[in-house]
Amino acid sequence: IDHTNFAWFEAKLGNPRIFDRDKVSPTLDKLKMPNFDFNETEIEAITTAILGFNGNKVDEGIKAHNRVDEMAQNGARLVKQFNCQGCHLIDDFGGQLVDHIGAAEYAPPNLNTQGAKTNPDWLLSFFNNPSIIRPNLEVRMPSFHQITDEQWNAIIKYFQHLDNEKISYRDELTINEHSIEFKGGEMIHELGACNNCHFYGTTFPKQDASTWAPNLALTKERLNPDWVKEWLREPQTIMPGTKMPAPFLPTEDLLTIDGAKNDWGKELVKMNGDTEAMLDGLRDYVWSIKGKTNIDKTIQDYFDENGYDFSGDEDEDEDDWGDDEDW
Is residue 9 located within the same domain as residue 158? Predict the structure, then answer.
């Protein structure tokens, strides 16, 4: 008999008392397993089952139900083929171009969380016809006309895989503009002075061009509502180094002092420091912002007249979504 476990099992099942052979033992000490007269097929099946009775299980990552979708795998190959990581940080790798540009806010965006962040339909449209997202950049993402829609969809699928995003379609976000949460979100928006940096359609921000940030009228078309809420909660967690500050959300103690209604408004006072409700309300208010979504010509006309020279003109403390948004 070979010195292997399965050889021993097969010998035992074929002749249960084979290991008593040539032994001198009292009757009660002899092997007691009966002979079931298993045929070779049955012995093989039982041996296979016994070999499975152990703690050496298949690693979770290689089980069939955890296989990476073939389309996502193809997307990963395309990202490497077209050297997307030469410009962009994807899955915490790449983005070396920022070393040559010098300032991260003028570099190609960090694409971590992209799969959870953007609406797939919008992203496909953007890939086919890149438009201006970060208004104060002179250089833009080029068009890759050699890439087909099927290939772009594979890349989008890869982004979604990286973020464990399984939803390809979302219902339209329902907003109640008369709710306490919405009104409270509007007040947080006003107190946060979002219009210092952000465009509202063709309405320009109040501050200089070096601080300009994406058009908020495009939010509902471009971004996913769950991601926006988490982004507003703590931008630095999602995109380390971004200039976008987390909005100040009043705590319960601030909302219970004398004069709180004058400072924060009656709706926020009623919300009593409920962080989730305030984030929902702020997200919903941003979602409701109306205006032209494609402001490429407006931006181009401005810079044709004024140029792109921001040297010595930046204030590092200014609000900006510019570090992380798409070229």
Answer: no
Closest CA to 208 of 197, 199, 216, 192: 197
For the stretch 190-216, pLDDT in tens is 999 999 999 999 999 999 998 999 999
> Looking at the structure, do residues 192 and 238 belong to the same domain, yes or no?
yes
pLDDT in tens, 44-79: 999 999 988 887 777 766 666 666 789 999 999 999
Same structural domain, 28 and 45: yes
The tally of domains found in the chain comes to 2
Helices (H), the chain: 5-14, 40-51, 70-81, 97-101, 114-117, 120-128, 149-162, 180-191, 219-222, 225-233, 235-238, 252-255, 260-264, 266-271, 275-288, 296-306
**Average pLDDT across the chain, whole number:** 88
Query: Other C-beta atoms within 10 Å of 96: how many?
Result: 13
Q: Same structural domain for residues 296 and 229?
A: yes
Say yes or no: 34 and 150 in one domain. Answer: no
Do residue 233 and residue 267 come from a single domain? yes
The DSSP result for 142-199, as a single string, is PP-TTS-HHHHHHHHHHHHHHTT---S--PPPP--TTSHHHHHHHHHHHHTTGGGTEE
Tell me the pairing of strands 89-90 and 93-94: antiparallel
CA distance 248 to 211: 20
Q: Are residues 37 and 172 in the same domain?
A: no
Give the Cα separation of 50 and 311 in Å (integer): 74
Indicate whether 317 belongs to any domain: no
Of 268, 273, 269, 274, nearest in space to 186 by CA: 268
Which residue range is the domain that position 167 belongs to? 64-306
Q: Give the dihedral sign, CA 241/247/253/257.
A: positive
